[in-house]
Design goal:
The protein is built from 7 helices and 11 strands. By secondary structure, the chain is of the alpha/beta class. The relative contact order is 0.17.
């Protein structure tokens, strides 16, 4: 049986809040057995450097008395993952993140570590990579990774920052629901639309929706439906 211990979060910052502040209690519990967490800054939101991103994220981890170290500072990132007691992958551009995970050859070692019980926190792009593929990201394909296949440590895909259709909007483009429906004409992977401030707590084989909001579930050949917070996610 897989030994999984993850928080898969829609976002790092909820409206009006500070970086990761809505998750601090959950982070403290997730990383309770270590003082040091390895940070994967490859998604580079807004194009910031790995050092700048690490410094920003480290401020939040200081609030729970944890030291954050960027994986880009290690001479051997694969060895760093094998020795890590906790990992956080931040948000940004999923294409850039996945491309770098393959370039540095740490996609598979990270997957192996997670299945061996490594405490893992992902937000936004860092949550996208937990799914079977990154095909439900909202990001622009500014680089071309060698594969869209990702960690596959959860048996579904994530659409973070999920937005409901706004009936008062004059926007004429596709809604998230439309785009996911298009995805399901070519794929049969379930998709969880995670709204801002929501996360999925993964423990071994259980996947429980957390936060104040419901999530929108999309399955192949089924109508989309809502699940309330506290629900254990299961797919046929």
């Amino acid at each position: 049986m897989p030994k999984r211990n993850l928080i898969v979060a829609s976002t790092s910052t909820v409206y009006g809040g500070k970086y990761l502040d809505y998750l601090l209690d959950e982070m403290a519990e997730l990383f309770k057995d270590t003082d040091t967490v390895v940070f994967i800054p490859f998604a580079r939101p807004g194009g910031i450097s790995h050092d700048e991103y690490t410094a920003k994220a480290a401020e939040a981890f200081k609030l729970i008395d944890k030291k954050l170290i960027g994986i880009h500072t290690f001479d051997d990132p694969i060895a760093a993952l094998k020795e890590a007691k906790g990992v956080f992958t931040g948000g940004g551009n999923t294409f850039v993140l996945v491309n770098e995970l393959y370039r540095t050859k740490i996609m598979q070692p990270l997957r192996d570590a997670i299945f061996n019980g490594l405490p893992y926190l992902g937000s936004s792009a860092g949550s996208n990579i937990c799914g079977i593929s990154m095909r439900n990201t909202n990001d622009m394909p500014i680089v071309y990774p060698p594969s869209f296949k990702t960690l596959g440590v959860i048996p579904f895909n994530i659409n973070p920052h999920y937005l409901d259709p706004d009936t008062n909007s004059t926007h004429m483009g596709e809604t998230r629901e439309t785009r996911i429906a298009e995805f399901h004409t070519q794929n049969n992977i379930p998709v969880v639309g995670l709204r801002e401030g929501s996360w999925i707590r993964v423990k071994d084989h259980e996947f429980v929706l957390k936060g104040n909001l419901s999530a929108r579930i999309f399955e192949h050949l089924k109508n989309p439906y809502e699940v309330e917070t506290g629900t254990s996610l299961q797919f046929s």
